[in-house]
UniProtKB/TrEMBL annotation:
It catalyses: N(6)-[(R)-S(8)-aminomethyldihydrolipoyl]-L-lysyl-[protein] + (6S)-5,6,7,8-tetrahydrofolate = N(6)-[(R)-dihydrolipoyl]-L-lysyl-[protein] + (6R)-5,10-methylene-5,6,7,8-tetrahydrofolate + NH4(+). PANTHER family: AMINOMETHYLTRANSFERASE (PTHR43757), AMINOMETHYLTRANSFERASE, MITOCHONDRIAL (PTHR43757:SF2). The lineage of its organism: Bacteria, Bacillati, Actinomycetota, Actinomycetes, Micrococcales. This is Aminomethyltransferase. It comes from Leifsonia aquatica (Corynebacterium aquaticum). The glycine cleavage system catalyzes the degradation of glycine. Its EC number is 2.1.2.10.
Length: 388
C-alpha cells in the first residue's frame, strides 16, 4: 500500500512510541493488528543484551481491563481460574480465563491496585474477547468493567541491569518514602504506584523474558518521554531497544508459553503444564471448574521441551515423529515454538507430544522440511537466570 506521494503506508494500529521506533531504525511487523517493532539491529544482539545487560521493550499493544467495585475480587474469582480476591494491594498474579469446556481463552496477569480495583492485562489479540467475557461473567456482581487499553502505554525494562537503570533514571518518585529503596525492595510479581515527572506510573516487577525486570504502565502521551529517559540513563549500562523477535526467543528459552502457540481454546491447562494455575481448592465456583475437575483426556498430548543438535531449528507446525525402519514414521506430536537458542547454542523447541513419550531423556525426531532430526525431551525451562 502506498500513499498519494508514493511513500509506503503501514496498516494496523500504531503504538504511541511508533515515531521513536522508526527514528531508531526499527523493522516493523503486524502483530495482532498492530505495527510493532520486530527488531532494531539484530535479533541476536538484542537477545544477548537482555541476558547480559538490559533491553527496552514497547508492549503498548497489550490490553488492560480494569474492574472497580466492592465485589471486584469475588467477581474475578468466578471469572478466572485463580483466587484473585486473596491478593494484597499492589500484588500481581498470573491467571487463566477458561472456557466452560476448560480450554484457555487467554492467559493473564492480574494486579490488585486498590481495595476494590483490579487491572487485568490481556494478550493483544484477545483484548476484546477478554473484556467482553469479563463483562458477561461479572454482571451478577457489584462491579464495573472498563477497557482502558487505549489509555495505557506499557514499557518493559528487562535484564540483570534493569534495577540499576531505573535507579539511574531521573524523574521517578513515590508519595511515601524513597523511590530507590522502594524499587530495590520490590519483590517479583509486586508493583508500586509512582510518578514520573509528575505523571502517574505503575511500576511492576514482572516480565516475560526469564530475567529480572520491570514493566511500567502510564498514559500514552507520557510514554515517549519515559522511553527516551530510560534509554539515556541505561546507555552506559548496555541498555538497547529490543523487538518482538528477541522477546520470542527469550521467552522460549525461559519455557514461557505463548497464546496462539502453546495455549489456546483446545488446550487444557494441565496439558500445558499450568494445572497449578487452576485453583480447585477455592470454595467458590468458577467458569470452567467442572471441566477442570475432569481434567484432560488421559491420552491428550502434553507440552514438553525438546533440545536438538547442530544449527537447524524446529519451527512451529513441524511434526514430531518416531522413525520406523520401513519409513512409515509415527507422528506423535507437533512443535508449537522453536528456534536456535542464542544462549544455549543449540536448537530448542516446545511441542505437544503423546504422554507416553513425555519423560525427559526420551529420544524423538522432528521432521524439519523432510529431514528427520534427533531431539531429546528436556525439562523446561531451557534457561534459568542466576538469582543472587
Amino acid at each position: 500500500m502506498t500513499s498519494q506521494d508514493g511513500a509506503p503506508q503501514q496498516s494496523g494500529r500504531l503504538s504511541p512510541l511508533h515515531d521513536a521506533h522508526a527514528a531508531a531504525g526499527a523493522s516493523f511487523t503486524d502483530f495482532a493488528g498492530w505495527q510493532m517493532p520486530v527488531r532494531y539491529s539484530s535479533d541476536l544482539a538484542e537477545h544477548h543484551a537482555v541476558r547480559t545487560a538490559a533491553g527496552l521493550f514497547d508492549l503498548s499493544h497489550m490490553g488492560e481491563i480494569v474492574l472497580i467495585g466492592p465485589e471486584a475480587g469475588v467477581a474475578l474469582d468466578y471469572a478466572l481460574a485463580g483466587k484473585l480476591s486473596s491478593l494484597a494491594i499492589d500484588q500481581a498474579k498470573y491467571s487463566l480465563l477458561l472456557s466452560r469446556a476448560g480450554g484457555i481463552v487467554d492467559d493473564l496477569v492480574v494486579y490488585r491496585t486498590g481495595d476494590d480495583r483490579y487491572m487485568v492485562v490481556a494478550n493483544a489479540g484477545n483484548r476484546e474477547v477478554v473484556a467482553e467475557e469479563l463483562r458477561d461473567r461479572t454482571s451478577p456482581f457489584d462491579v464495573e468493567v472498563y477497557d482502558e487499553s487505549d489509555d495505557i502505554a506499557l514499557i518493559a525494562v528487562q535484564g540483570p541491569a534493569s534495577l540499576s537503570i531505573l535507579l539511574a533514571t531521573p524523574g521517578f518518585s513515590v508519595e511515601d518514602g524513597d523511590i530507590g529503596e522502594r524499587l530495590a525492595a520490590l519483590k517479583y510479581y509486586w508493583s508500586i504506584p509512582a510518578e514520573f515527572e509528575g505523571h502517574q506510573v505503575l511500576i511492576a516487577r514482572t516480565g516475560y523474558t526469564g530475567e529480572d525486570g520491570f514493566e511500567l504502565y502510564l498514559a500514552p502521551d507520557e510514554a515517549g518521554t519515559l522511553w527516551d529517559a530510560l534509554l539515556e540513563a541505561g546507555a552506559e549500562q548496555g541498555l538497547v531497544p529490543a523487538g518482538l523477535a528477541s522477546r520470542d526467543t527469550l521467552r522460549l528459552e525461559a519455557g514461557m508459553p505463548l497464546y496462539g502457540h502453546e495455549l489456546g481454546l483446545d488446550t487444557k491447562p494441565a496439558s500445558a503444564g499450568l494445572g497449578r494455575v487452576v485453583n480447585l481448592a477455592k470454595d467458590t465456583d468458577f467458569v470452567g471448574r467442572a471441566a477442570s475437575e475432569d481434567g484432560p483426556h488421559p491420552e491428550a498430548r502434553v507440552l514438553v521441551g525438546l533440545m536438538g543438535e547442530g544449527k537447524r531449528a524446529a519451527r512451529a507446525g513441524y511434526p514430531v515423529v518416531v522413525p520406523a525402519a520401513d519409513g512409515a514414521d509415527e507422528v506423535v506430536g507437533v512443535v508449537t515454538s522453536g528456534a536456535l537458542s542464542p544462549t544455549v547454542g543449540v536448537p530448542i523447541a516446545m511441542a505437544y507430544v503423546d504422554p507416553r513419550l513425555a519423560r525427559p531423556g526420551t529420544e524423538l525426531h522432528v521432521d524439519v522440511r523432510g529431514s528427520r532430526l534427533p531431539f531429546t525431551v528436556t525439562a523446561l525451562p531451557f534457561y534459568s537466570r542466576k538469582k543472587h
